[in-house]
Write a structure and sequence with these properties.
- The structure is a homodimer of 469-residue chains.
- Chain A is α+β, with helices and mostly antiparallel strands.
- Chain A folds into four domains: 97 residues, Uridine Diphospho-n-acetylenolpyruvylglucosamine Reductase, domain 2; 117 residues, Uridine Diphospho-n-acetylenolpyruvylglucosamine Reductase, domain 3, CATH 3.30.465.10; 108 residues, Alpha-Beta Plaits; 77 residues, Alpha-Beta Plaits (2-Layer Sandwich).
- The first copy, chain A, is 36% helix and 19% strand.
- In chain A, strands 15-12-14-13-17-18-16 form a seven-stranded antiparallel beta sheet, sandwiched between helices. Chain A has a five-stranded antiparallel beta sheet with strand order 5-6-10-8-9. In chain A, strands 1-2-4-3 form a four-stranded mixed beta sheet, with helices on both faces.
- In chain A, helix 9 packs antiparallel against helix 14, helix 10 crosses helix 12 and helix 14 runs antiparallel to helix 15.
- The longest helix of chain A is centred in the last third of the chain and has 20 residues.
- Chains A and B meet through strand 9, helix 8, strand 11, helix 9 and helix 11 of A and strand 9, helix 8, strand 11, helix 9 and helix 11 of B.
């Protein structure tokens, strides 16, 4: 697959004075080695790598600020790097410059258990956070599948399987420490649960994909570990029956913690990959959190609704290890899908629509996919109206890549026509910039552009992502 | 009480050409009558009115856009007016100009019951919305007490008694239609439940108090009416016991729908005002939403916790009319407080702190208030760490006004030192601008100012509010 054709011509030179100053400060934490640059010039997107000129491994907010000041002075692009798990080309150094790797900023700074918040450096991953707070009886629910860094999750406004109950990073970031383009250090908010004190700087940086500032610390909300957890699988005769069940469950206000859809091909792939024996029909995987009585009550309501739509008996995963196996399999759906077609690369869609439009949107998409020249799987965070098509493509077949891009574009058009969005949780990066005007309109884009110009007047922060300068 | 001393000198002239053009377009929906201007140059704050030069009654987004274009061309201040219920001087025309009254934009545009959203013109009030959607089985939970307009609630990031469970306007605005300073019409987001498609324009305008754009339509989240609702009152021997109970309840993750604190004086005032017979001690008022079994379970947990802190027996308000009377009394606490000192005016504080710091913050504040020369009451949305002191002042006594300002400032400093905010839900307006630098720091203010400059380069939108130009 080809990176955008214009990229090489956009590379900006990195002055020797800038590299010298970085080398002096960071010594062997500055690297220009090909392998290191290659590792930092790619993400999980289908694009080939676009290498930064150098990589700096930062260990503190002050170091990030120093790098920003230097890059701003020399007009050098600066791209923050967390865990490398983004999938829309966010990390590609299309204009060259410096990749600033925050993975060594991996300390959990403070847990305020009484307030249900924790503050961590940006390089802490969600799994690390949950590991370190386990003894507090609290947990951090946002779970995008990959073990992403908290800084990266904030920067892409990530969510995942738990969002239907607990919200996304938009709702769960309390405050951020951010380094601005000119190297100032700003804390975006206090730890108060709510505030009306001026513009919402926190929400400005959440989802800004490194283009407005570099997130170095993240304060997130935590939740009490539920007293009882149970998970169940329910098979359906058709995709539509599964989706209609979810619509009714959400409309009833049942506080399901997770409700995930898999189509038949996705089920087949996880059976193969994770050695499970799930019945290969469209299915929903549920998780319920609450008191023992509350969980039972939720499950009974949900069973009633699914039965009305042809859902077969719930298959319960009562033991923690069974639930872990089930969710591990669900999270492996991406890699499982890839194995359905050995040697393939995947292109993933990410639309999100109002739930009343979900069934139509999925059905029309399936109609189109069934005529495609490549196999596919569908998984979805259907409680939010968000689903992903994994299109399994021959990496050497440009025609197939174009075909997938057309299908993705048609799907995005369908989602926008249904008052939805081109991306529920993956972000814009490079790959979805083409859809921004269709989704938001030129006047909204002009506002976003004016914000970018105001916060980053020299266009050094992850330039060429989200919107054109 | 005095308005800021500098204000008269800041008035900008409104060119005759601008007024003529408005008169031509709006005819008798443009008013320069003293009484109309006076009504629109005040809010519920203790400031004396500062009159706009004229008032326009808009009936559509396009009309608002036309007014904005005209004002922008002539550099004339433009102040949006909803229900007039703000309380920090938001609406005062300190630089003169045009007040644009949106109260005739009061149509509920569409209810998407399946998606749990509704879209209304900005002038629709929260009570009107709930009245009009009653038959759908859904409700809109945000309840700031006053029957504010949805546009005004979005503009001040309002919340109130239900926020502990349902969140604030930050979490419950799905999308906005906004008129920009130069008269473009922008929709900030789709109706998808989540999106990662670029900068969060919605959250930029929520809480911007009319300084970045004029909100003309609001899409909000709705919730299924709970199957069961119950409310209860619990008396405590001391303020600290009540607050400690709330802290434990929140930490247990009990999904209380409301938990409101009143001090002894507040209870006495609502008894007098609303002819109730509440026992006059510090108390908490609870409301529980859920299934019948769920509500009972929540109530049992809460009763156990309150009993551990000396809470006396729950007094239940089971019947809807009893609950209505109770919440009406709570909402009347402001006016009830005023009646404790006939002829007084009130100054209200609004800090919000992390809940672990709430008890100390309230206690230190009470120590200071007990030495003051005026009476006071305290009510609080304590589940969020937010409480209000109603200071009952002699309007002719400037020394008392200064004393109250000192106490408020000390309280704000205490809240900021506790990692809290000067305003949980009332907004900055004029009255709290002095605290912005203390709370956010100069670098964060510089970012906010650059946002204001980018979105409103001629400083016409509610100028002189939130931050200095």
């Amino acid at each position: 697959m080809n990176a955008p054709a214009h990229t090489e011509s956009l590379r900006r030179p990195v002055p020797a004075a800038c590299l010298d100053a970085l080398r002096e400060r960071f010594a062997d934490r500055l690297s220009v080695a090909e392998a290191v640059r290659e590792h930092h010039g790619r993400d999980e997107s289908p694009y080939p790598p676009m290498l930064p000129d150098a990589v700096v491994f930062a260990q503190s907010t002050e170091e990030v600020a120093a790098v920003a000041r230097l890059c701003n002075e020399h007009r050098v692009p600066l791209i923050p790097y967390g865990a490398g798990s983004s999938i829309e080309g966010h990390l590609l150094a299309i204009q060259g410059g410096i990749s600033i790797d925050l993975s060594q900023m991996n300390r959990l700074l403070v847990v305020n258990a009484e307030d249900l918040t924790a503050t961590a450096q940006a390089g802490v991953t969600r799994k690390q956070l949950n590991e370190e707070i386990r003894d507090t009886g609290l947990f951090f629910p946002i779970d995008p599948g990959a073990d992403a860094s908290l800084g990266g999750m904030a920067a892409t406004r990530a969510s995942g399987t738990n969002a239907v109950r607990y919200g996304t990073m938009r709702e769960n970031v309390v405050s951020l420490t951010v380094v601005t383009a000119d190297g100032r250090i700003v804390r975006t908010a206090s730890r108060a649960r709510k505030s009306s004190a001026g513009y919402d700087l926190t929400r400005i940086f959440v989802g800004s994909e490194g283009t407005l500032g570099i997130i170095t610390e993240v304060t997130v909300r935590l939740y009490p570990q539920p007293e009882a957890v149970s998970a169940a699988i329910c098979n359906f005769p058709s995709l539509n029956d599964a989706v209609q069940s979810v619509i009714e469950i959400i409309q009833m206000g049942v506080p399901v913690a997770r409700v995930e859809f898999m189509d038949e091909a996705a089920v087949r792939s996880v059976n193969l990959h994770s050695k499970l024996t799930l019945r290969e029909t469209p299915l929903l995987v549920f998780e319920f959190h609450g008191s023992p009585a509350g969980v039972q009550e939720q499950a009974e309501i949900v069973q009633g609704i699914t039965a009305d739509h042809g859902g077969m008996d719930f298959e319960w995963a009562e033991r923690p290890e069974d639930r872990s196996r089930l969710w591990a399999a669900r999270h492996a759906a991406y890699f499982a899908g890839l194995q359905l077609r050995p040697g393939c690369r995947a292109s993933t869609t990410d639309v999100c629509v109002p739930i009343s439009r979900l069934a139509d949107c999925v059905r029309e998409t399936v109609d189109e996919l069934d005529r495609a020249s490549f196999p596919y799987t569908i998984v979805g965070h259907v409680g939010d109206g968000n689903f992903h098509v994994l299109m399994l493509l021959d990496p050497d077949n440009q025609a197939q890549w174009r075909e997938s891009e057309t299908i993705n574009h048609n799907l995005v058009r369908r989602a926008i026509a249904a008052d939805g969005t081109c991306t529920g949780e993956h972000g814009i990066g490079l790959h979805k910039m083409q859809f921004m005007a269709e989704e938001h309109g030129e006047d909204a884009l002009a506002l976003m552009r004016s914000l970018k110009h105001a916060f980053d007047p020299n266009n050094i922060l992850n330039p060429g992502k989200i919107i054109n300068w």
